[in-house]
């Protein structure tokens, strides 16, 4: 990572604490590479394209926070599920935060929190590198993470992430979703997430191989682009050793439930 | 179709009265940039304006005047005023970063320059997003001599777009979701319509083709009536801005598109429009029923109304709304407001591909898959630009890419979602949404300079690919943003051709500061002079100018947010 990249990343972190307007103003005033202080040209380079500072804001730091799933699931058992992501940065350099988990009977499980650095690698795909920490009611696990995410042909949104943990543990997560527009505001979204592990982890009730599929079919109504309540059907399936752990604990290995929730972004 | 009706605005805006300030004989003008409480839609907002009015005052100068304009900044941020389309010293051009550092809060900057031309122009802020917030006005330069047309009445018709949202919120929303403001996306409903019309197979093939490219044919405008209220001289449609005339008069209407992001299609049902000026320069009069005006362009038309009311109708290109006023012989009159035309769709031609008229085999590719296309057929270094269907003799001149980029390397870059494989001359087309509408619509090919001018061939050509990525909402030239590019160097006195190749699916109003250039539209010694040219998707076009004014000149897409995202270059003449 080059020095400008680090500086940019640091600027991103510093801006995290500022409200939108303040951050916009700050980065705007310093659009590009710092505002010129005086009326004299900032550089003596006769070929400088902008001797008095950048005329545009093409290095502006933007940020958004999206909660894709914020839902109650109701069936044989009830739980609350969240899944969201946020990003902050320029076109070239972004910090991503991804968070998901389930809350049931006062316990959080499947809590995956990720902090990633992303940069674009092609027209529609970004490469990401960073870390994941499984933070929930079970013993925590730290992972290094590397992956890609983007928009596949036919508008499928996909992400694939590989993880390296302690003791040579490997894991992988595959995600995909598709927005089917029934009308301009009514959107049917099939979505699936799969988690894989190379080694069993009894403390986290995980077997090796495909551990879990979490899928949903959600029908949302976009009151605005940013506020969309939805209803849906979710499926959670546990497989292999993970299913054995579930059975041993008296839990179901397959659950189809009704969901009601809110998709929102800022 | 489930399109939200755009906000038509309040009947009375409560803004300061439109008081055209006339500089007349006095060539010293004081302007103050400040804020103004504005209520366009029923929600109180703050506009950023000149001299307390939205739009700013109409400034009138005479050709040959030496003008002095003091601009005082009462904002809490830096500001600037750019005199769009004027020949002037680059230090007076008003582009922060290039001409000067901008006008700091509390400061006054004095612009001094001679007026070297006549015609309809405009001025606007070149700082941040102030232009979107209302910092613009008309600039009328009266000729020393007699004008080659007669009229008894003269009205400015300044078209703009207003949003109650903060401009930075608009661009931020687009960064997250490129089609955020598109309320005309393809849905299950439009698929059923397509199936009924074209059959299931054809409808499905069409969806698959666009889906494979991850593009949308409904991508007409980035920012739409979903957030915009379209204004005519600062008035929303409901306020019905009225231009008065006395029956029997010829009325000159000076149309200026001062929008941030909106292309308008303008007509006055019941009246022929005699176009006499484009971008401030006289053209041979051409009579049309309708014309498209890209952002920052101006067209002067002369009409001869009968004693009745007429609607001046300017619909946004994506048909998500309109600006409207009335041409009437007394105030309070109204005429019928026509319905919006159906929203248009992009085609393969807009992708720079061609179904008809060009053999795929001839281009060296057999399918639509970009990755398999033979780019070598487009080798720019061997293309004879001067012979592109023009009437002028073919002549080999050196061609360089403005950023030293090999266009064959553009495809697949994060900043590029499409490369036009077969860009073509589209100057004879009225454009997406207009061609074939049954009305006589102006095209760039129709524009002929009033005065003949011997065409002086350029010494070299500089090529710009207009590139973007709708999904990432990135915009630039040759796959690069401003901050990633160097200045485009042109020798003082050099005669150059700029070749524009639009790889994106949208029109881009490309503006060169400090010059009026000759658009190579095949009109021989009558090439029209323009400061802004709305380049169509999939189009290759060119213009020529003599770089006789030294300095740092801005060259950019005049869609405000495209410019801010980096579709901007410095042309450095030295």
Keywords:
heterodimer; A: 266 residues; mainly beta; twelve-stranded antiparallel barrel; 3 helices; disordered N terminus; B: 574 residues; seven-stranded mixed beta sheet; 5 helices
Q: What Rg of chain B is obtained from the alpha carbons, in whole angstroms?
A: 23 Å
- As an assembly, this protein is heterodimer
Beta content of chain B comes to 25-35%
Q: How far is the first residue's CA from the last residue's CA of chain A?
A: 29 Å
**Radius of gyration from the alpha-carbon trace of chain A, in angstroms:** 22 Å
Low-confidence segments of chain B, ≥5 residues, pLDDT <50?
Answer: 12-25, 356-393
Which bin fits the share of residues in helices of chain B? Answer: under 10%
Poorly predicted residue ranges of chain A? 1-41
Largest beta-sheet characterization of chain B: 7 strands, mixed
Biggest chain pair contact, residues each?
A-B, 49 and 66 residues
* Helix and strand element order of chain A: HHEEEEEEEEEEEEHE
Mean pLDDT of chain A: 86
Tally of individual helices of chain A: 3
Anisotropy-based shape of chain B: globular
Q: Can you count the helices of chain B?
A: 5
Task: Describe what you observe in this structure.
The complex is a heterodimer of chains A (266) and B (574). With 266 residues, chain A is mainly beta. Helix content of chain A is 12%, strand content 53%. Chain A has a twelve-stranded antiparallel beta barrel with strand order 1-2-3-4-5-6-7-8-10-11-12-13. In chain A, β1 and β2 form a beta hairpin. The longest helix of chain A has 13 residues, at 3-15. Chain A is globular, with a radius of gyration of 22 Å. The two termini of chain A are 29 Å apart. The model of chain A is unreliable at 1-41 (pLDDT under 50). By secondary structure, chain B is mainly β. Chain B is built from five helices and 31 strands. In chain B, strands 20, 21, 22, 24, 26, 27 and 29 form a seven-stranded mixed β-sheet that branches. A six-stranded mixed β-sheet of chain B has the order 10-9-12-17-14-15, with no helix packed on it. In chain B, strands 11-19-18-13-16 form a five-stranded mixed β-sheet, with no helix packed on it. In chain B, α2 (188-198) crosses α3. The radius of gyration of chain B is 23 Å and the shape is globular. In chain B, 57% of the residues are buried. At the A-B interface, α2, β1 and β9 of A face α1, α3, β30 and β31 of B.
